[in-house]
Amino acid sequence: MVAMLKLALRDIKAGFGRWMSIFIITALGMGFMVGLSECQPSMLRSYGEYLEKTALFDWRAISNVGFDENDAEEIASVRGIRACEGAIQLDALCIGDGGSDEVMRFHSLTENVNRVHLLYGRMPASPDECLADSKRYGEADLGSKVRISESNEPERLDNFLRREYTVVGVCESPIYIHWERGNTSLGSGTVRNFIFIPREGFKLERFTELYIKLETEAEIYSESYDRILRITERRFRDYADTMLREKFDEYVASGGEVPEGVDGPEFYLMSRKQNLGYAGFENDTGIVTGVAKVFPVFFFLVAALVAITTVTRLVEEQRTELGILMATGYSGAAIALRFLIYTALASLGGCITGFIAGSAAVPWIIWKVYSMVYKFGELRYSVDWTLGGAVTAVYVLMSCAASLWAVRSSLLATPAELLLPKPPKSGKRVALERAAWLWNRLDPSKRASVRNLFLYKQRLFMMVLGISGCVALMVAGGGISDTIRGIAGEQFEKVSLYQYVITLTKPVDGSLIAELKAAAGGGLMLCEPVYEGAMEIEVGETVKSVTVVAAEREDSLDGLVDFHSGSRKLMSPKKGEALICAKLAESLSISIGDTITLFDGDRNALTVRVSGIFDNYFFNYIFISESTLKDQWGEAPEMKTIYARETPGSDIHAVAAKLLDCGGVLTVTVSDDVRGRVDSMLRSMDYIVWFTIICSAALSFTVLYNLTNINILERIREIATVKVLGFRKNETNAFVFAENLALTALGTLFGLPLGTVLHSTVIDKINIDLIHFDLYIAPKSYISAVFFTFLFVIAVDAFMALRLEKIHMAEALKSKE
Amino acid sequence: MAFVEFRDVKKVYDMSPVRIEALSGVNFVIEKGEICVIVGASGAGKTTLLNILGGMDFLTSGSVTLDGKRISDYDKRSLTEYRRLDVGFVFQFYNLIPNLTAVENVEIAARLCREPMDSHTVLQKVGLGDRCDNFPAQLSGGEQQRVAIARAIVKRPKLILCDEPTGALDYNTGKTVLQFLQDTAKREGMTAVIITHNTAITAMADRVISLRSGKVDRVTLNEKPARADELEW
The pTM is what? Predict the structure, then answer.
């Protein structure tokens, strides 16, 4: 036993490189598998603990009549409710960079729910101080001011105690872990940032909403949490309805003033599942779990093959020694133990290293990538010991089985047979030789290479597997980037043709359009008013928020929005019809001809028939006709938005500024700016591409090193011989490495289609809400995958050429071992 | 001037702290067209001498000339060209490339030089005209060594260098191979150097150089060399 351990250690020392190749490939396989599968649990754990710490609401209640302190207290006393706190949420136009208005969402600070996570500065101490959104504000912005614009309606302005709030702190909020800040009726329709101010900073008497925290320890996204939500919802709704009705009646009876348009109290309950961050986080982090299922099988196969080839070679080298050991009386089991120790040490060491490195590095990298969209708190690692243990067991068992397989024939042989040198493999003809015109042109050294390819089948198989895997990983990685990168261009060049989205303070009238055109000084080619409203679409359990757009006439949007599906043009929606974007159709399984129902913020329903599904990549759009709204809601919608397209060659930003100056214009959004922002966000995905390139490089280096090393060791006599015969350096290199290049070419041939399939599998698993992907791999990605693979091969060959150089010609004179 | 000349050739292997002097001042000449047998026991310096004459190793001091060229001054690159164009090797274990047929094994050497003989013709000359398309594993030891001889002479080298050419062969086959070597060398007018520990082979040589402890012990010239197939050991 001790003797065998010593021998195994000697084997490791004698050929450290190849022992390391088993070690490394195991570490890679383990690292990626464990690392990738720990990503989602780690991120969910981080999120869970973050929500625990910040106490994100479970229910949010809003009412058209608001709430007061008593309401909150009464609800808080209900069984199963830990806390209930009143809060105010109010949007306002603020003066942004460059003077144009942008929408800020003001929240009152709460104590027991939705606690902010302060990053810089301090909490506000007086009503004119505020905390600002860390998405935009940093440490340098402490002391700056958030200014509320005078272009807000006076009633809205009245609700704020001040016109200016000093930023005394920068924070994150559990309500806003997603990059998007939400939609609003004001301005461009998009909330730019959130602002937290003290309750006293608002002049409102009543709360606009109540945040409720339940008494539960259930984990986020768990089935038991969902059950608690379902149970509490009904109990809570009944209670609130009765209570509110009573209060309202009391209020009216005591001569209270009822706001215009309010017939009675209305009450809406929303769970945290309607929070953009909470709703998307689980799905979006699932991407990596999907990828985690594709990678490891592959590494596993390669690891097994590397173990087999290495031990086979080792056994061959130690043939005579094995014969002596057997002749001395060591049993087959004892001898096998030597090789078991050899591979077990490599795979065990690799597993431990891979487990530690993978668990630490991979979730961290993925966390950084995700932080471009989901940003909050800190990463908390969730280490999966069970998976690590199971994978270790499988790897160690597998490598031991591989070494037993490699040693089996030697153990069955008699010592005498082992003491004789193994006869060399006989040469074999290959099919290609029948193509005489080609074969006769090949010089003998090339012919040897071609025959070697098929003589060493194990190597052929491993090399093709390793190289095709390397190519496939890079094609898929590059393809993911192409797919993601391409959509911004598709969206803004082929679908949304408008350059400006102009929002107005009041519904558009005929003179305004003319006025805008004049102000732009010929800078506007097209200019059309539309209705743009945020609505919800409900299909079964799923609710999605969508932007509904209605134009005046059927041809209004010609040249502004291009409705198409692939190369087929779609008709603009007629009365009762809707065009929905591809992502909605896909995620809600809606087909042409289906009838869908949309709800606006006041729960007014709109029923339309889907007449077409159009290609669209960002955000969820539904286009309908103005007549539909007139028909179902009885009045023409307020057209407070204008889509406009620039005249080619005009100065886009100068025109935007002139438009903003016109009376009645609230905001001007420039598509080029949006596109720039989107591009920079999506560029973060490039990390994933680099990650795959590094994985591929590691994979191909290990496989190539292992195989080339063994190939050289097996043919050392042959190589020394050709050197004696007078082969020059480059001829010797070509004699050995031509096979690598040929196998690389073959591997590439398999790798390209494999990569295409891998790409579509991975994209299928990446399912990000609001973004629709069209599978696309740029020729560049195929080319660079091939280029990098050959580069890796050439790098390994260049390294191995140094080994060839060191082979002494005297090896040719030695007797056979 | 002699065709091959060794003058004061020393080769020291410096494996600190030990210094091993494998050749300690070797002097001899070989004339053009001769068959020369270099004999010596293990450790006499045969292999070192072969390495130096074959352009596979550098010497420590002294000089070696072949056909008027001082190969002892050559650098690595020139030595490669020297092996490529001027020397034909025959190894103890044949060293054929297993995945090439007999004729391809000859061809691979023929491609290295400017005016090679025709590979098929050479194989015919060594009596293997009908085994051209066989792989080494399909040939007997003697046949493999004849392919090796064909591979050495196809280049029309200035020198054929044989390292224990019968070492791996049985008695009869060994003699046949030596006879081929003798016939071929004489017919082609090539100079051949055979390095062996088998003193019986010396009878077929024009010149016999005995090595002992890294020095030339004795040089014998045979007026009438025996035919190789008449040798006995």
Answer: 0.74
